[in-house]
Write a structure and sequence with these properties.
Layout (H helix, E strand, L loop, with lengths): L7 E6 L4 H5 L12 H12 L3 E6 H4 L3 H10 L4 E5 L5 H12 L6 E5 L1 H5 L1 H7 L4 E3 L4 H12 L11 E5 L2 E4 L44 E2 L18 E2 L3
Parallel strand pairs: 1-2, 1-3, 3-4, 4-5
Antiparallel strand pairs: 5-6, 6-7, 8-9
Helix pairs in contact: 2-8
C-alpha cells in the first residue's frame, strides 16, 4: 500500500441487476439509495475529507462506467459496501480497479464483510475492511492514512492485511449517541427522482428516505444483526 497522504475518498454502492434483485418481479423491483455510505460520507466531509459517492444502482452504472469516473479524478481511498447479493460484483471490481490504481487503498464494508471478514478478504483484493458501523472506524482509518501513518493495530472494527496475514481487530462499540452522526450526505447521491421506493409507501415521487433507528432486539432467523447489533437505538433529532 502507498503511504501517500490521503484526502480524496470515493464510496461505491455496486451495481445490482433487477434480474438478480427481484427475478420475475423485476418490473416492480424497488430502487433505493444505500444510506449507510451517505452517513459515512457526511462524517468524513465534516472532518475535512473530499468525498464522492458513486451509486451504481441509482445512476445505472456498470464497472466500466465507474472506472472512467475514477480515472477522471483518481482517489486515495476507494470504499465499497457489499451485501450477499453484491459481493461478487465488489470482488470483481476490486480486482479490476487494482490494475489501474495499484497505490490506492481499497476498503470494504457492509453486511457481508461484517459476517465473513476472513473469507471476504481471501476472495477480494482489499487492503482494509470495516466491521459493523462504519462512520468512525473509516474516519479514524482515513486520518491515520492522511498523516502518513501505518498504525492500524489500534483501530477498533478494522480488518487489514499484515505481511500476508489477515488481521481482525477487536470490534468497535456501537454508537450510543446516534445524534452525533450527521444526516447522510444526500447532495452526493443521484437525484431522488432516479429512485423507486415500494409503490404502496408513497403518493407521488420523488421520495426521500430516512433511518430513524439502529439495532434490533429480536431474533429472526433470516436476519444478521451484526452490523447494528441487538440493542435498539434511536435518532432523537
Amino acid at each position: 500500500m502507498s503511504k501517500n497522504h490521503s484526502n480524496k475518498i470515493v464510496l461505491i454502492s455496486p451495481p445490482l441487476s433487477m434480474d438478480k434483485q427481484a427475478g420475475s418481479l423485476k418490473d416492480i423491483a424497488i430502487v433505493l439509495p444505500t444510506l449507510g455510505i451517505g452517513y459515512i460520507a457526511a462524517v468524513l466531509e465534516k472532518n475535512g475529507f473530499q468525498v464522492k459517492i458513486i451509486d451504481c444502482i441509482g445512476d445505472n452504472l456498470y464497472p466500466d462506467d465507474v472506472l472512467k469516473i475514477l480515472l477522471d479524478d483518481p482517489p486515495d481511498i476507494i470504499g465499497f459496501t457489499a451485501t450477499i447479493l453484491t459481493i461478487n460484483a465488489v470482488i470483481n471490481m476490486s480486482k479490476m480497479f487494482r490494475k489501474r490504481f495499484p497505490d490506492t487503498i481499497f476498503v470494504i464494508g457492509g453486511p457481508h464483510l461484517t459476517s465473513l471478514p476472513e473469507k471476504t478478504f481471501e476472495k477480494g483484493d482489499f487492503d482494509m475492511g470495516i466491521i459493523g458501523e462504519g462512520e468512525f472506524t473509516l474516519l479514524e482509518l482515513a486520518r491515520e492514512i492522511s498523516k502518513g501513518g501505518m498504525n492500524f493495530k489500534g483501530i477498533k472494527g478494522l480488518v487489514y492485511r499484515d505481511n500476508g496475514n489477515i488481521i481482525v481487530n477487536p470490534p468497535r462499540p456501537f454508537a450510543e449517541d446516534l445524534d452525533s452522526i450527521p444526516f447522510p450526505a444526500r447532495h452526493l447521491y443521484p437525484p431522488l427522482i432516479k429512485y423507486k421506493p415500494v409503490p404502496a409507501s408513497y403518493k407521488k415521487l420523488p421520495v426521500g428516505l430516512i433511518i430513524s433507528s439502529r439495532g434490533c432486539p429480536y431474533q429472526c432467523t433470516f436476519c444478521d444483526r451484526k452490523v447494528f447489533g441487538n440493542k435498539f437505538r434511536i435518532f432523537l433529532r
